[in-house]
Design goal:
4 helices
């Protein structure tokens, strides 16, 4: 069977309809691809936004936990008396009481000036330190260990022992000093925390 020009004329409408259908199908495929790409971009954007929200939420939770820990630490310091102005009178009474309780033959001490341990600019609270030179006359080495342990446990401050030197006690005309076997010289730091008065 052979196609003639007359057959083509008769088929022009179906051929035209087929071409239109192909064109519509192509347009539909193109539109679908565009929509898929757009949906992918929106999905990626939503995932990135969700990731940022989750990261911020983790950061907020971490900051909240840090604030709780700091508040708890500060509460503990308040309860132990470390916060506020230094209480040198209380400290000296404590030293005398411990010396009497332990029946140490002798004790001398000297406090230095109070200094900030760090820059206080912009900080709500700051650490301050007072150095102290302590001299003790002892019966034996354990007296020094027990004395320092009691000071650190009972003082209304954080007491840091920087160094201590022990030496045999030289003879003395003082009866009380005569029974001492050792002398100790220590450097301590009495640390307190208080609200900073520095200008922000």
């Amino acid at each position: 069977m052979k196609f003639t020009v007359g057959d083509l004329v008769k088929l022009r409408l179906p051929i035209l309809g087929t071409l239109i259908l192909f064109l519509l199908a192509g347009l539909l495929v193109w539109w679908s691809l565009q929509q898929e790409q757009k949906a992918g971009q929106e999905r990626n954007g939503a995932a990135a936004g969700m990731s940022q929200v989750e990261q911020r939420l983790r950061q907020v939770r971490t900051e909240e936990q840090e604030l709780k820990e700091r508040a708890l630490m500060f509460q503990k310091m308040q309860n132990s008396g470390i916060t506020g102005e230094e209480r040198r009178l209380d400290w000296t009474e404590l030293l005398r009481r411990i010396q009497q309780d332990m029946r140490l033959p002798g004790m001398n001490y000297e406090f230095g000036a109070q200094k900030p341990l760090e820059s206080v600019n912009g900080a709500a609270f700051a650490y301050f330190s007072s150095s102290m030179r302590l001299q003790l006359r002892l019966l034996h080495e354990e007296d020094l260990i027990n004395f320092l342990a009691r000071v650190q446990r009972e003082a209304k401050a954080l007491v840091l022992v920087r160094n201590c030197k022990l030496a045999p006690q030289a003879g003395s005309s003082d009866n009380r000093s005569a029974i001492a076997q050792l002398s100790a010289e220590c450097e301590l730091q009495w640390v307190t925390v208080r609200r900073s008065t520095a200008t922000k």
